[in-house]
Design goal:
Length: 311
């Protein structure tokens, strides 16, 4: 009856449906799994479970999975060995129907995944067509951030990248260079330094720029934490933000609006990325004949008080 059997009379169906509504009945997911020979279980593997970006992606994925009747298991895999062990355990138990893999670098991971398991990468584009992916449009993010500073009359723009082994760092750098090129501004390699996403690396990058005497009126840091480190280093170096130097980041982390000054940044909607990734994975499981496609989430400029027009 609950499954909509056609031989049940309309009167009986109506009475049962009313009883279900009154009792607040929910279908038993385990019974459903047994009846259909499926587990309705997904697994999400992340470098760690504490980083804000990763945690937000997981939260969005879990919400979407639950809404569609799936369970989401989560586990941390900080290195290649632990990742391989977790994948083997999950697949050997036959509990997992698909994998979400949050990683900034797909190279060590994609060769460890068998062809028969549906997989969606989050944060980097795989090199093999059999995998789907969900990422920020990082090149566009880099372009928008740099364009914003150029529109404020800045032409000497220091750039602090993330680790250059990662796709997002390379793509954001490409966007930075594309914006400079389009507007006829030479790209000065002495204004580009590699960070590691930490506030400390942003601080150290600015210390380097100040100590070498390179001239700049704005800073584009590839994430908010490095931007905060940059602001602190500028202040320690006697510079005012944004009066002397404008600063922009990427992420729009929850505290960005409470920084001093409130941080101009590029929104990376990580919660939405997680939802889209889970939806994409479920579609791949339920419609395996559909080709995998990369999904790029649109970035958005959030203007606050850490950038201003150069006079």
């Amino acid at each position: 009856m609950i499954n909509g059997h056609e031989r049940v009379s309309d009167d009986t169906r109506l009475r049962v449906e009313n009883a279900i509504a009154e009792l607040g009945y929910q279908p038993n997911a385990i019974a459903r799994s047994m009846a259909q020979g499926r587990t309705f279980t997904l697994a999400c593997l992340s470098p760690n479970l504490t980083d804000f970006t990763f945690a937000s992606i997981i939260e969005g994925a879990e919400s979407e999975a639950r809404q569609k009747g799936y369970f989401l298991l989560t586990a941390s895999a900080p290195d290649e060995k632990s990742f391989a062990n977790l994948v083997n355990q999950l697949l050997a138990s036959q509990r997992t129907e698909g994998l979400l893999v949050i990683t900034p670098n797909v190279e060590p991971h994609q060769t460890l995944l068998p062809k028969y398991v549906s997989t969606v990468f989050v944060g980097a584009d795989p090199r093999l067509d059999r995998f789907a992916s969900v990422t920020l449009d990082d090149e566009k993010a880099g372009y928008i951030a740099t364009e914003h500073l150029i529109q404020l009359n800045h032409s000497q723009i220091a750039h602090i990248t993330g680790p250059m082994i990662e796709d997002s760092s390379q793509n954001r750098l490409n966007g930075y260079q594309a914006a400079l090129h389009k507007l006829g501004i030479p790209c000065d390699s002495s204004l580009i330094l590699e960070g590691d996403w930490s506030a400390t690396s942003g601080y150290q990058a600015i210390q380097h720029f100040l100590s070498t005497g390179v001239k700049f009126s704005a800073v584009f840091a590839q994430n908010d934490r490095m931007a905060v480190g940059a602001i602190r280093a500028l202040r320690d170096g006697g510079k005012l933000v944004p009066q002397d130097v404008s600063v922009i980041g990427v992420d729009d982390m929850p505290l960005a609006t409470y920084f001093d000054p409130p941080l101009t940044t590029i929104l990376q909607d990580t919660y939405r990325m997680g939802r889209v990734a889970a939806c994409t994975l479920i579609d791949a499981i339920e419609q395996p004949e559909v080709a995998c496609q990369p999904m790029h989430i649109e970035p958005r400029l959030i203007v606050r008080q850490s950038t201003s027009r150069l006079i």
